[in-house]
Amino acid sequence: MAAATIVHDTSEAVELCPSYGLYLKPITKMTISVALPQLKQPGKSISNWEVMERLKGMVHSHQFSTLRISKSTMDFIRFEGEVENRSLVKAFLACLDGKTIKLSGFSDILKVRAAEFKIDFPTRHDWDSFFRDAKDMNETLPGERPDTIHLEGLPCKWFAPRDSASEKPSEAVLVRVFEKFGAIRNVDIPMLDPYREEMTGRNFHTFSFGGHLNFEAYVQYHEYAGFIQAMSALRGMKLMFKGDDGKAVACNIKVSFDSTKHLSDASIRKRQAGAAEAAGLEQQRESKRREKEAEERQRAEERWRAAWDTATVRPRGLQKPRPVNRASFPASAVSQGAAGVASS
């Protein structure tokens, strides 16, 4: 998913969950194609930057929120442009579609075609036909019918508890946000399961191009009506966050219907069993790690003792003299020695 962009005009935003500052904002994008002439002179090229600047100049007093190249070939350059609101889309298309560009140094005229951006979003026909034709689905069972939406590219920070310093998304917040459309039966945020990546081999921690951590989630509704309302509301929309200071940013999210039985009872039991097995393996690894650390500490202590014993051995010439055995001397010698000491 692309990075969040600043929103200057929030007039078209609709409420999703105001208590968490979340809104839905219409996607207001267009595709612009510029046909390129054949380059007859060797070494001569067309500047993509110059073409982009000419397009910006064609919309007069208005401005693109974003304008980027989505594809460039020898025959054409395709751009994706975004504006602040829906009314501007029509105004921009009127200024661009069917018009021409004249570049400096080229005699050929470049023709411009512009159209509203075609949104990639499943239709009711898509999920109805999928579940009707799927041989391994039982539409009487939750998770095996159109009741679960799959969301990708949700910013973690926007779904974190408001009274927490953590930026980790919360399932409780996810429920609070999406229960607007109907009663929720179950939710799942795969990245919150410490064993999920090990079990599946997938990486659920996905960074967007802007460096913000995003996550994917599954939301399952009790009733088909809740699923329908959620899909209808999310169609053609961006997710927008509005802070307490009134400033707003928005990002694109990917929304689809779940076709993998992710929240079916059988899949949930399988993940729970896998998590228990992974937890047991983790405990075994932790036990082995502690045993290895204990063995290493013991070997280190033995090496230290050996080094200490070596360092404290005295050289033979400096050994402590043995104590004198007075019983081995004659009594007269002892008395004479004592008398000599007294007289001195």
UniProtKB/TrEMBL annotation:
SUPFAM superfamilies linked: RNA-binding domain, RBD
Gene3D superfamilies for this protein: 3.30.70.330
Biased segments, Basic and acidic residues type: 283-306
Assigned GO CC terms: cytosol; nuclear speck
GO molecular function, one term: protein kinase A binding
Compositional bias segments (type: Low complexity): 331-344
Pfam families the record matches: RBD_AKAP-17A
InterPro entries: AK17A/B, Nucleotide-bd_a/b_plait_sf, RBD_domain_sf
The protein's name: A-kinase anchor protein 17A
Organism: Castor canadensis
